From TrEMBL:
One of its GO terms (molecular function) is zinc ion binding. This is DNA-directed RNA polymerase 2 subunit. GO terms for biological process: maintenance of transcriptional fidelity during transcription elongation by RNA polymerase II; transcription initiation at RNA polymerase II promoter; transcription-coupled nucleotide-excision repair. The keyword DNA damage does not apply. It comes from Babesia divergens. PANTHER family: DNA-DIRECTED RNA POLYMERASE, DNA-DIRECTED RNA POLYMERASE II SUBUNIT RPB9. GO terms for cellular component: nucleolus; RNA polymerase II, core complex.
Length: 173
């Protein structure tokens, strides 16, 4: 697998595009004008893996574990992974077209090899989520649940800042 490549100028992800005139693969940055040709002698730079997802609904969210390598994402140490116990996560906001609730944050564990992710939930949603999980367990049965690890919701207490006064000052301005 070739992995992600980043722009040396602005640190954003480089996207692949074929150069039809030279019949060669090219890496482009969507944020600045940086571009470069792939090394023709390097297999890893010329290997393209494409994954297409067919979403059935807004609940079908697929997060790549490689997203934690994106330097443009926010980072926090005030989140604990329920799978591995790591306390560092990258986070980003889901677009409204993917999620009904505005400003929904997704936390992704930064521990190499873990890749666990969870959506942030609000207090009133926790009871509804527990009921839905119970219904899903009863519907799926025990054999399906042993093969599936559903993402857990992150409680609202997992904040990205120690104290709001630290961010805005004592008077909140």
């Amino acid at each position: 697998m070739s992995g992600l490549k980043f722009c040396p100028d602005c640190n954003n992800i480089l996207y692949m595009k074929p150069d039809t005139q030279k019949l060669q693969l090219m890496f482009l940055c969507r944020q600045c004008d940086y571009s470069r040709m792939a090394d023709p002698n390097s297999f890893s730079e010329n290997c393209v893996n494409r994954t297409t997802y067919n979403f059935q609904g807004k609940d079908d969210i697929i997060i790549s574990p490689l997203i934690v390598k994106d330097p443009t994402l926010g980072r926090t140490t005030h989140w604990t992974c329920v799978r591995c116990g790591w306390n560092k996560a990258a986070f980003f906001q889901l677009p409204e077209r993917v999620n009904d609730e505005a400003m929904m944050l997704v936390f992704v564990c930064c521990n190499q090899g873990c890749g666990y992710w969870a959506k942030q939930v609000y207090e009133e949603d926790e009871e509804e989520e527990e009921e839905e999980e119970t219904d899903a367990i009863n519907t799926l049965g025990t054999t399906a649940m042993t093969q599936m690890v559903p993402p857990k919701e992150v409680p609202m207490e997992a904040q990205t800042f120690d104290d709001m006064a630290e961010l805005f000052g004592e008077d909140g301005i």
